[in-house]
Write a structure and sequence with these properties.
Elements: E1 11-15, H1 19-28, E2 33-37, E3 60-61, H2 63-72, H3 76-82, E4 86-89, E5 94-97, E6 113-116, H4 119-131, E7 136-139, E8 142-149, E9 154-161, E10 164-169, E11 172-175, H5 183-189, E12 197-200, E13 205-212, E14 224-227, E15 237-244, E16 248-255, H6 265-273, H7 279-284, E17 294-296, E18 301-304, E19 316-318, E20 324-325, H8 333-348, H9 358-381, H10 394-410, H11 414-424, H12 436-444, H13 458-464
Parallel strand pairs: 1-2, 1-11, 2-7, 5-14, 11-19
Antiparallel strand pairs: 3-6, 4-6, 8-9, 9-10, 12-18, 13-16, 13-17, 14-15, 15-16, 18-20
Helix pairs in contact: 1-4, 1-8, 2-8, 8-9, 10-11, 10-12, 11-12
The protein binds flavin-adenine dinucleotide (FAD).
């Protein structure tokens, strides 16, 4: 008998208490009792933990994500700001060199503001908000082992806490366990066909070091500084300075296959100086490093096309990085995690959680924000040698040329920049690039010339020493 036949409140089990799991729990708590199952013991406060190793690297949240965060957990970004996070005006407070080596002018007419702080701070605020929700329980130190049910319906989750195994019954099990998700194997174990997958991996390595904000930069609103990699000149190398809370800078450097940064402290600043433009190296040359260099290669674009499955079990959905993980240089994973949770919430506002076919609808709805981020990342990364099994098609090449043109136009025209940022921030679909705001300046030619140098003001340069 399906559980909807009773009057009890629906139940849900969510695997993973990182961003996607916490957002999913917030969305589900409106209609169900939710148990989050998390392998780690969770810190109280902005502390690192094993299950989110990427937290040591630069994380920023685009404005589409900021909106989604506040929609799910009203006022949550204010909580982050109260603890030292910043909303950074893009491009007023950002110095950015585009992949096609054009500097963006620091136009202030756009509405886009990115949330900037350490990932540990962000996660601690999200955890506190979700812990405070009445219908949510977090089972820490508990590992999801496998699904209960069959190919028609998942009815629960096998878990282990300190070696003690148990079964948690649920009307809906959500897998938000990240890149390492075992969903493909679990679903095959239920007798379902192999999930179609795609990988586009530019072989990006990240190296990150924390610095004390140099000179008097902490006294002014020092901009984000970003040099993006150029896919047309492999290996692509780039970097970012992210001024975060407690007067610190996170400096992340990245390079694709054959041009990777390492954890050698003596090579870090040289790598920064050797990027397509040396501005990051120049800004950190007298800054005091705080701690070791962290590296990762867990950066490929990997997507599982669950939404394409003809057969999908009721009672099960996969969200966040467990569906698709992206090259982090595009900074989209957190935004997609929140937008997936909103898609789930919106469907469950009008559809019973236990109705046949609901889970399939959830999976299809979650695929929309996933596809938006995927197309942006793969549209660039497919051009790196060895990234994909098949080279970019003629249509992909044409689109990439158009995006290059859109970036070049946005770099020197504020209306075009607005359209470009609507898409990059995942606020609007890519079709926004074909709107008059973009096409008219593109066709008539932007008025302002390209900037010859990084647009840092004299005051900003002086504040560094
Ligand atoms: C280097 C790097 C930099 C990034 N930078 C950005 C950025 O600037 N902006 C942005 O938006 N995104 C960025 N991302 C992506 C972002 O980190 C993720 O999209 C985000 O954490 C959401 O992922 P998730 O919650 O789906 O999975 P994860 O964050 O990977 O969390 C998975 C959770 O599941 C738990 N877990 C795993 N297996 C089990 C199990 N069997 N049982 C119980 N618990 C389990 C883990 O302990 C963990 O808590 C970056 C990623 C990387 C790798």
């Amino acid at each position: 008998m399906p559980p909807s036949a009773t009057n009890r409140r629906p139940t849900s089990v969510v695997i993973g208490a990182s961003a996607a799991g916490l957002f999913a729990a917030a969305a589900l708590s409106e209609i169900a009792d939710v148990t989050i199952v998390e392998r780690d013991l969770l810190p109280h406060g902005a502390e690192p933990r094993r299950g989110v190793p990427q937290a040591r690297h630069a994380h920023l949240v685009w404005s589409g994500g900021v909106k989604a965060f506040n929609d799910l957990l009203p006022g949550v970004t204010d909580d982050v700001l109260a603890k030292g996070g910043r909303l950074v005006h893009i491009m007023g407070d950002m110095v950015s060199r585009a992949p096609n080596e054009v500097w963006f002018r620091r136009f202030t007419a756009t509405h886009h503001r990115n949330l900037v702080c350490s990932r540990d701070l962000l996660d601690s605020v999200l955890r506190d908000r979700v812990r405070a929700l009445e219908n949510v329980t977090i089972r820490e130190n508990t590992t999801a082992l496998g699904l209960v049910g069959d190919a028609a319906r998942v009815t629960g989750l096998h878990v282990s806490t300190d070696g003690d195994e148990a079964t948690l019954a649920a009307d809906l099990v959500i897998d938000a366990s990240g890149r390492g998700s075992r969903s493909p194997a679990w679903l095959e174990g239920l007798g379902l066909p192999k999930t179609p997958e795609r990988e586009v991996n530019a072989g990006v390595a990240y190296a990150t070091r924390l610095y004390r904000a140099p000179g008097r930069t902490a006294d002014i609103t020092f901009p984000l500084v970003n040099v993006q990699a150029n896919p047309a000149k492999a290996p692509g190398q780039g970097g970012i300075i992210l001024p975060i809370e407690d007067n610190q800078w996170i400096v992340t450097l990245a390079g694709t296959r054959g041009g990777e940064p390492t954890d050698d402290p003596n090579a870090f600043e040289d790598f920064a100086l050797s990027l397509g433009h040396p501005v990051i190296g120049q800004l950190i040359k007298d800054a005091e490093p705080l701690g070791e260099i962290a590296t990762t290669r867990s950066t490929g674009n990997n997507r599982r096309y669950y939404e394409k499955e003809d057969r999908w079990p009721d009672g099960y959905a996969v969200l966040g990085d467990a569906i698709a993980a992206y090259n982090p240089v595009y900074g989209h994973g957190l935004t997609v995690a929140a937008q997936c949770a909103i898609a789930v919430r919106d469907i469950l506002q009008s559809t019973s959680i236990t109705a046949p076919g609901t889970a399939k609808r959830l999976q299809r709805a979650a695929a929309r924000p996933v596809a938006a981020a995927w197309d942006l990342a793969v549209g660039q990364d497919a051009f790196y040698p060895g990234a994909a099994d098949t080279p970019p098609t003629a249509v992909e090449k044409l689109l990439a040329r158009f995006v290059d043109q859109a970036v070049a136009t946005g770099a020197r025209n504020p209306r075009a920049l607005g359209a470009l940022l609507d898409v990059m921030s995942l606020e609007k679909p890519a079709t926004r690039l074909f709107s008059p705001d973009m096409l008219i300046p593109m066709l008539l030619g932007p008025k302002k010339p390209h900037l010859p140098q990084a647009p840092l003001s004299e005051q900003e340069w002086k504040s560094v020493s």
